[in-house]
Amino acid sequence: MHLNTAGEDEADSVCIEYNDLLCRPRHELRMAQALKAHADARRWDELHAPGMSEGPGLAALHLVFGAAHAADDVKASYSIDLADVRRTATTFIDRMSTHERTRYRRKLRCMGERCPATPSS
Q1: Burial level of 61, CB count in 10 A (0-12/13-18/19+)?
Q2: Per-residue burial over 30-40, b = 16 or more CB atoms within 10 Å of its CB, e = otherwise
Q3: How many CA atoms lie within 13 A of 40 on its CB side?
Q4: What is the DSSP letter of 10?
């Protein structure tokens, strides 16, 4: 079963963030119980809920589906404060580690070789 996704392969899927139970606040436990009852009336062996953050919805799912084995696949979420970049008169590239800058420049060169810039008309 897939919560709020179509179940496509990860390579073909959009990245879902902030996934949660779709219900009114403080009704997460009742929603999780209803989801479990719905699931138990069918054949299923796995509940896939990508993009869930810590909070009442995830806690309710863990409580209700507690007998099942939970497999958390935690992935880092990177961000940069663009206001700070503007304020300090640096660039986004300046904020990268040496390794990241090297990889970035290598990819730019590779893209330039594959798709050379054409003069605009």
Answers
A1: buried
A2: ebbeebbeeee
A3: 10
A4: G
Count of CB atoms within 10 A of residue 91's CB? 9
Give me the torsion for CA of 21, 61, 52, 6, rounded to 10°: -70
Q: Is 27 exposed, middle or buried (0-12, 13-18, 19+ CB in 10 A)?
A: middle
Determine how many CB atoms are found less than 10 A away from the CB of residue 20: 19
> Helix or strand or coil: residue 38?
helix
φ/ψ (deg, to 5) at 48:
-105, 120
- Tens of pLDDT, residue by residue, the chain (121 residues): 888 888 888 777 777 888 999 999 999 999 999 999 999 999 888 888 888 888 999 999 999 998 776 666 666 667 778 888 888 888 888 888 899 889 988 988 888 877 766 665 4
Host H or E run for residue 109: helix 98-114
